[in-house]
Amino acid sequence: QVQLVESGGGLVQVGGSLRLSCAASGRAFSSYVMGWFRQAPGKEREFVASCWSGGNIDYADSVKGRFTISRDNAKNTVYLQMNSLKPEDTAVYYCAARLVLAKEYRSWGQGTQVTVSS
């Protein structure tokens, strides 16, 4: 497993941008599918985006066209660029990792708060 540490959360106004980072420790970072999830107060955790080393990328419909996931395997880091933020994007954002053949994400970060004010 890898250890994950998120950073970059904060308070931003509607329409603003933030970039989240997730640094991974451990070996074989490129072997992992990296994902971002979020959990708003009173709601279940939901998928935001995922990124394979080979380039496959998926997004939740709610963030398509506004969020961009990317990774730098040389730095063992995955990013989530969030633009045109909306109040409904307010949540704790979590970074997660799973091996390519695994069905579930086994490694999770501690989360970083993103608050979008109107």
Can you describe what's shown?
This protein is mainly β and 118 residues long. It contains no helices and eleven strands. The chain has strands spanning 3-7, 10-13, 18-25, 32-39, 46-51, 57-59, 67-72, 77-82, 91-99, 107-108, 112-117. Strands 2, 4, 5, 6, 9, 10 and 11 form a seven-stranded mixed sheet that branches. The protein has a four-stranded antiparallel sheet with strand order 1-3-8-7, with no helix packed on it. The chain is globular, with a radius of gyration of 13 Å. The model has no long low-confidence stretch (mean pLDDT 95).
* Broad shape: globular
Round the Cα radius of gyration to an integer and report it: 13 Å
How many strand segments? Answer: 11
Number of helical segments? 0
What fraction strand?
A: over 45%
**What are the secondary-structure elements, in order, as H or E?**
EEEEEEEEEEE
Low-pLDDT ranges: none
Helix coverage percent: under 10%
Largest sheet: 7 strands, mixed
Mean pLDDT metric? 95
Distance between the termini: 39 Å
Helix and strand composition category: mainly beta
Short description:
This protein is an all-beta fold and 118 residues long. The chain has strands spanning 3-7, 10-13, 18-25, 32-39, 46-51, 57-59, 67-72, 77-82, 91-99, 107-108, 112-117.
Topology:
Blueprint: E1 3-7, E2 10-13, E3 18-25, E4 32-39, E5 46-51, E6 57-59, E7 67-72, E8 77-82, E9 91-99, E10 107-108, E11 112-117
Parallel strand pairs: 2-11
Antiparallel strand pairs: 1-3, 3-8, 4-5, 4-9, 5-6, 7-8, 9-10, 9-11
